[in-house]
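Input for the complex:
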Amino acid sequence: MRSEGIRSARANITKTMQEKIVGVLAVQGSVVEHERVLRQLGHAPRLVRTVDDLRGVTHLVLPGGESTTMMKLLQRFGLWEVLQARFAADDIALLGTCAGAILLSYLGLGLTVDRNGYGAQQASFSAGLQSEQFPDQRGVFIRAPIFTEVGDSLRVLATYENVPVLVQGGRHVALAFHPEISGDTRVHEYWLNL
Amino acid sequence: MNVTSDTAEKNTYELKAGLAQMLKGGVIMDVMNPEQAATAEAAGAVAVMALERIPSRIRQDGGVARMSDPVMIKEIKAVSSIPVMAKARIGHFVEAQILEACDIDFIDESEVLTPADELYHIDKHPFRLPFVCGACDLGQALRRIHEGAVMIRTKGEAGTGNIVEAVRHHRRIHSQIAALKGMDSMHLEAAAAEYRVPLALVIETLDMGRLPVVTFAAGGIATPADAALMMQLGCDGVFVGSGIFDAEHPEKMGKAVVEATLNYADPAVLCQVSENLGQTMKSQTIESLAVRYAERGD
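Predicted:
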């Protein structure tokens, strides 16, 4: 009886693991940092550099980095087209931090962003956020974008100085800050369970 | 736009190191004017290094090489949406203060410029901006980190188009870190003393099995293959100085180096991006050099 229970629990775990294939877009930026967070949550993320790598991935992190660089490389190697199609078909769950959130706005999440809205590096900051969903969340903002307009279809999950910095739309989450740098795993966990 | 509250923390180590972390996997290009900055950004550079003369020209001209004119740096900043870096002379903390006042994003305390201080590097901790410094061995790398650098690059030999020194410096640092693994506490203490850094920093390096900060390759990268070589050796990204804008077709070369840095482990893509690039920069053997920049700043 007991071993059977363990076996079925194992089967369940395997099933959820099979259902989710988690990836990190590995074009450039805070890739290993996201990888580390996902590993802490029990996943073995796939690094996605090509269209082939993306095949079968159900959950993809768009990391922090330089959005112009990522965008150019995604377009040159055909990944952007595939991402657009899968986003439109609601066939993938995306989590974007900083540059990744900018990519999400380009994909049509209903988010308008002011790139580097806070200014150059000396304006980078970290601060406590206002959030019911994630109490005591500290946001690390590095040359961060400002979310200037948030569409009606999006839920604001955290703000800083009354400006939205963490939003959710469907199975997608966009953040202006970097939980992968501060090491907070809660937003990733929330996203994986959407 | 100033919308951060008084309780926000700024200029912390986490924020300085964080910017370096965002540059990983990217190519940082030397540019001499706003047009080149636009070309670099269009090619997919992850940051630009604003300087009046790229290293190959500094070599040709000789004389004292200093920080660039702030006007030129600001013009480049005005057209760039990616981070802007600029160089200060080794030990010249006033040049660094001026660069900080220009409100750029990153300072390179660089041996490519003529050193201002033969004994001391800049104490980088009090600065609000992050610093990158060159190193050709583990001792130099750890000393720079101890002084506050959040990013290390190989020194290589800038302006030569010759990758051999960057490879040498990378391999040396790598093997010196590997050597820490076999050491007992007494030998680790001796290593810390030899490197003139706290034991804790040596132990952190040993535990991580790599330098505890983002580490790029620099100095002599002239082709997409050079960039991919340094990436396969384990660097986090590459600086390309004269290799882009002294090449026959800077736009093509810039794009190719960026694509090679992303696909560094895929020879089929590397083959494709290496085709028809035209003349590379005029290159030099190390033996023929009158001045070796890598010998500057210990």
